[in-house]
Structure formats: C-alpha cells, structure tokens
Amino acid sequence: MAVYTHLGAEELSALISQYDVGALVSAKGIAEGVSNSNWLIETTGPEGTGARYILTMYERRIELSDLPYFLGLLDHLSEKGCPVPRTIHDRDGSAYRMKRGKAVALIEFLPGVSPTQPSPEQAGAVGRVLADMHLASRDFARSRTNTMSFPDNLVLLERCGADRLARIDPGLPSMLGPARAAAELDLSRLPHASIHADLFPDNVLMLGEQVTGLIDFYFACTGSMALDLATTHAAWCFDRENRYRADLGAALIAGYESVRPLGAQERELLPEIAKGAALRFVASRAEDWLDTPDDALVTRKDPMQFVARWHVYDDLGEKLFDRT
Ligand SMILES: Nc1ncnc2c1ncn2[C@@H]1O[C@H](COP(=O)(O)OP(=O)(O)OP(=O)(O)O)[C@@H](O)[C@H]1O
Ligand SMILES: N[C@@H](CCO)C(=O)O
C-alpha cells in the first residue's frame, strides 16, 4: 500500500486549484509502489473535457534538492519526444509545491500496463527506448551523482556486515568479495548521459509491444550508459526462477544497439558491469530487508534473486551477447 499521507477532499481540491487543470473530480490512492504516496487524479481538464494526472507526494529517500533534476529531466525528455510523463507546473511555474512539509508534484498520466512476463519483442522495444532516452538526455543541463554506484554498494553491504547478511541468507556474505571487485571497476572512461538506473518492468508502461511510459525516475543520475543497459538487462532478462532468458537478453541489446551501438570499451566491460548491476540490487535489497520490521505491511524484496543473477553473469562472461 503506498499512500502514507491522508489528504482530505478540501485539501486536495485546494492543491489542484493551484494548477491550470480544471477542478478536481476524483482522487484515488494507488496501491503500487513503496517509496512515495501516489494518487490517480481526475479533473474537469484545462479545456473542460476531462483529464487524468498522477499526484505524487515524496515521502522518503528523496532529497528535495534532487527534485529539480528528476522533474527537469522528465520535462526535457518529454519535450524531445521520449515516452516519459511531463511535470505539470503550477500557475507560478513551479514543478513542485510543498504540502504538510513534503514536496508534491502533479505529473502527466500515461496509458499502458507493466509487463509481468516480458516477450522478446517487448525487451527489444525497451532497448530502443532506453537508447533514445540516453541520446535525448545528452544535452540536459543538470547533473546528479549516482548515489548507488558500485563503491556505494560495497559500503552498504559492509555496513550490513557479514553476520547480519548471513541472517537473511547464508549465501549472502559471499557477495562481499564480488562487491569489492565491482567497486574497483572504472566506469568514468565510458560515455555518460542521464540514466534511469532502475528500469525494472514495473517502471515501464506498455501497450502491446509499444512502450508508452518510462516512470519512477527517482534513481536517475549522470552515469555510464552501459551501466543503464546492464541494469535493465539484470532486471528484465530472467524468468521467475532467475534462469537467464538469452532470447530476452539478445533482444534487449539488439534493440538498444539499433539506436546506439555500444563502443568497444563498453562491449568489453559489459559482462563485468552486469555483475556489478546485479550487486546493486543485492545491496539495496539486503539493506531494506534489515531495515524493514518483520511485521511491516510492505513485502520485502529478496536480495537472493540478484545473487542468483550475479552467478549467471559470472558463468556467462562474454556469452552475455549470445542469442542462445
Ligand atoms: N505517469 C504515470 N502514468 C500512469 N501511471 C503511473 C504514472 N506514474 C506512476 N503510475 C502508477 O503508479 C504506480 C506507482 O508509481 P511509482 O512506481 O512511481 O511509485 P513509487 O512508490 O515511487 O515506486 P517504487 O516503489 O518503485 O519506488 C505505478 O506502478 C503506476 O501504476
Ligand atoms: N527496483 C528495485 C528497487 C529500487 O531500488 C528492486 O527491485 O530491488
């Protein structure tokens, strides 16, 4: 359940009246997501013909000082024709407002549903849109440091400590060594852009094989484009039992390269970057696991899924590029 703050009808109406979107018709809390409160908002629309929006209240983890980067990036990409929601600015031109001491933003509603078992065609489409997004972001003026870089992941895992990691699963402490190796990888020489950095299927809206929306840009940062491709690969190209789906992997990379071919250094490093990308989710999930009380309503995400994926990448090596 992801509505942490209850906003009453009068409060919501007053908030919506600060925007040129017509009057509030309905507001429904959205259950998906765990980080922020989200509502699906219906209004009479700027033209009086009805309109839908997403209202997000930033609850935790997000620094207020990062909002101009996140929301500015949405506007920049949307202007360039990428399928991302634009931010609706209020009458004063602000992309976000403060409500009860928390930032809120009104965001364009995009159609589509997130695939649960993606097809190769869908993986290919996501690869193309990811590359489009990278190219479109290159002249975005703002920058943001990646707070989930490979060295950051090592710090997270070390802070959890081998004993507490072993309490989650006896196989987890063995990831400290690989996290140390990943932290040594130098991605600074690789081409950079603004990257999504968390492009799981639940952050992509699709209608059939068409990508209608990339959402949840709250880990976006300035980073290596190959890292974004590897992260998307780790998130998309496995079945429910964490077995590698080479057909999805090949389709994702081919889709990406049909728009932006990887450079020689990116190709050479991609198998190692994929291992680091898997560790990123081992680290964040392990930390979340330890931070979430046993009786919390939120379902914890299993870090061992990404331990399994790390092992797949370790075995695959260069075969990461193979179709079978
Ligand atoms: N622009 C949009 N258009 C349509 N639906 C959206 C949009 N943004 C968000 N949603 C819907 O709201 C849900 C929650 O959004 P989101 O994933 O951004 O929440 P979150 O709490 O920030 O997520 P997370 O738990 O992944 O950090 C999505 O699964 C999607 O159904
Ligand atoms: N998408 C991430 C959560 C955000 O870090 C995961 O599935 O672990």
From TrEMBL:
Record-linked InterPro entries: Aminoglycoside_PTrfase, Homoserine_kinase_II, Kinase-like_dom_sf, Pseudomonas-type_ThrB
Enzyme class at the top of the EC tree: transferase
Domain Aminoglycoside phosphotransferase: 27-262
Catalysed transformations (reactions): L-homoserine + ATP = O-phospho-L-homoserine + ADP + H(+)
Coiled coil: none
Pathway as given in its UniProt record: Amino-acid biosynthesis; L-threonine biosynthesis; L-threonine from L-aspartate: step 4/5
Keywords: Amino-acid biosynthesis, ATP-binding, Kinase, Nucleotide-binding, Threonine biosynthesis, Transferase
CDD domains (alphabetical): HomoserineK_II (cd05153)
A matching Pfam family: APH
Keyword Kinase on entry: yes
EC numbers: 2.7.1.39
GO molecular function, a single term: homoserine kinase activity
Family the entry assigns: Belongs to the pseudomonas-type ThrB family.
PANTHER family (UniProt xref): AMINOGLYCOSIDE PHOSPHOTRANSFERASE DOMAIN-CONTAINING PROTEIN, AMINOGLYCOSIDE PHOSPHOTRANSFERASE DOMAIN-CONTAINING PROTEIN-RELATED
HAMAP family: Homoser_kinase_2
Name of the protein described by the UniProt record: Homoserine kinase
Source organism of this protein record: Erythrobacter rubeus
